[in-house]
Amino acid sequence: MNNAQVLYVEDELSLGKITGDMLAKSGFAVQWAQDGLKGLELFVPGQFDICIIDIMLPGMDGYTLVKEIRQKDADIPIIFLTARSLTEDVVKGFDVGGNDYLKKPFSIEELVVRMNALLKRASKTATQTTDATIYTIGQYSFDRAAMELSYSDKKIVLTHLENELLYRLITHKNEILPRQKVLLELWKDDSFFNARSMDVFITKLRKHFANDPAISIVNIRGIGYKMIVRE
Q1: Over the stretch 110-164, which tens digit does the pLDDT of each residue have?
Q2: Relative to the CA of 101, which of 10, 23, 70, 207 has its CA 20 to 30 Å away?
Q3: What letter does residue 159 receive in the DSSP assignment?
């Protein structure tokens, strides 16, 4: 995607300058912030096409920054840059709203490939029309646009990945949702590592629906998941 507007937040001066320059040479328009607070100040919904954010930042860490960005824009693609590789760190990145992660040190070529893949997917999503954004599931109501799941007078605010995973389960209600399809759409690849991350989010969704025994999310071994809603 030529001339895509990029918010790049990185506090390492040499890495930030080199990466920013290389992205510019690849056709991106980059605004570089050197701390989390400045990154949040620069972010304006609709002004950027993608965000590239380091986790360890002064002022405001990357996790908190992405949470704040997601409050303003639920759909913008976000890539985390991280020196961390523990499962819980990566899962946390997805949980707060990241779409992808890249471990340092990384090559500019790989970063550009991942950026273009997310931008292409975001472009397709933006051109799709949806007949409904509010769905009724048993005793629950799901508002995809607001990223909220309601039960009685209680509302659960969903993370970006919870929201998108639940949307796919609901639109395949009482049908098998292929695991690989979801991993490729939301996690970008179907590696074992990302499959474990998906399992974590399925567990969270099951807990959200605990108040209605007519709803269950079952594992179809080796294939995927099925949201069963008994009438």
Answers
A1: 999 999 988 887 776 555 444 567 899 999 999 988 899 999 889 999 988 899 9
A2: 207
A3: P
pLDDT band of 181, cuts 50, 70, 90: confident
Cα separation, 185 vs 116, whole angstroms: 14
Mean pLDDT of the chain: 89
Which residues of the chain are in CATH 3.40.50.2300 domains?
Answer: 5-127
Return d(Cα 98, Cα 115) in angstroms, integer.
13
225 contacts 202 by C-beta, under 8 angstroms = yes
Q: Which DSSP helix (H) or strand (E) runs through 78?
A: strand 78-82
Q: What are the start and end residues of each CATH 1.10.10.10 domain in the chain?
A: 134-229
CATH number of 5-127: 3.40.50.2300
CATH label, 134-229, candidates 3.40.50.300, 1.10.10.10, 2.120.10.30, 1.20.1250.20: 1.10.10.10
Hey, how many other C-beta atoms are within 10 angstroms of the C-beta on 57? 23
- Omega of the bond leading into 105 within 30 degrees of 0 (cis): yes
Q: Are 228 and 170 in contact (CB under 8 A)?
A: no
Q: What is the pTM of this model?
A: 0.62
CA atoms within 13 A on the CB side of 24: 10
